[in-house]
Task: structure prediction
Amino acid sequence: MIASIVVDHLKACFPDDETGHAFLYCIYKRQENQGVDNLLASLLGQLAVWQPMVPESIRKLYDEHRRGKKPRLSRNEILEALGSITKTYSRTFVIIDALDECKTDQIRNKLLSEVYKLQEGSDVRLMVTFRPGIEPEPPSSMTKLEIRAYKEDIEQYLSSRISELRTVVRRSNELQRKIKDRISTLVDGMYVRLHPPSLIYSQLFKVPPCAILRQLAYRQSHGKAN
Result:
């Protein structure tokens, strides 16, 4: 959810052609299709789409593979094209959501290491979210922020939804208390609507954390959380 809010925020604040946007949503059920090469290729495809014209380097790769000279892009080709295309933007935002859903530590670490390399030659701003079960080593310039729901947050959210439950619950304060206590215990810090506590590494210096949190609070208070 937080990553989606950031994506919407970036698209609204930086709609120009000089800003690149690329987003990766790692999904457990798609692990077999989300290896390093596929994820990097997804970044490349998204950045190419944002260009007013297809870059010559991308066109060349397309022509070569269309003629059947190569079955698919090699990792080196993908990385070379990524390095080239990020330099055409004044800045590039890369959001990687749920990194922990990748199949192995090797995939996670390799993906991040390649994105870190892009930052050496271009203004690439990275945000990564993942559960605290993993914690890859970030560059010293990255900011770490832990986000979790406290018991008071859960109870406040549940109180706002009690009116949707059956009459027997709405009329019994004792039953409402038991429901809140039980759910708060089971959630154990996971965000409302089963969004887990996240550790976020961020270099989105142009997006103040307070702005993101204000939008998050607004959506929650207006019942727009997904």
